[in-house]
Amino acid sequence: MLYEIRDGEGQTTPTAYIFESESTGSRTIISHQLIPQLKTSEVTSLLFTHFFPKATFMSHAYDDMLSRVYNAHSSFYPSWIHFEGRECFMVEGVIDHFTGRREYKQAPCVISVEFEAYGRPGLDRLMGMCDVAFVAEGYMKAYLEDVGKTSWDGNEADKEYMVKLFTSLVKRTVKRRATAFVTIGSKGAYAVRFNNGSVEMRHIPAPNIQPSEIIETTGAGDTFIGAAIYALGYKRLDAVKAARIAVNVASKKCMQIGYNGLGDLADGFGVLESDDPFATPRADMSPEPPVIRPMDGLL
Question: Same domain, yes or no, for 11 and 92?
Answer without folding.
Answer: no
